[in-house]
Amino acid sequence: MWCAYIFGALALISFPAAMRSDDVIVKVDWVAQTFLQLVLISIIMVGQKKSSDSVEKMIAETHAAALAEFELAKESREMANQELMELKRLTAEINEVLKRGAK
Known about the structure:
Elements: H1 2-13, H2 15-20, H3 24-102
């Protein structure tokens, strides 16, 4: 932002000469080429930096949340696999008992 202040002061150095001119083109040139280019581009760059920072923060938060959800899904899958193994073991035991009872 300091750059915008410095460029604004620099642009104002030529302001009196541009305004003393009777030529409209000189005044328009001062506004368009001197003031707008020097000052507003600096301000736009600061705004883009702040916007970029907020987007990066949101991406980081989303990434962290996605990783947490992924870890929960892995844990859930592991628990489901353990339950499936236990069900298979119990089914095998029941089938064994039923086979013995049928003899």
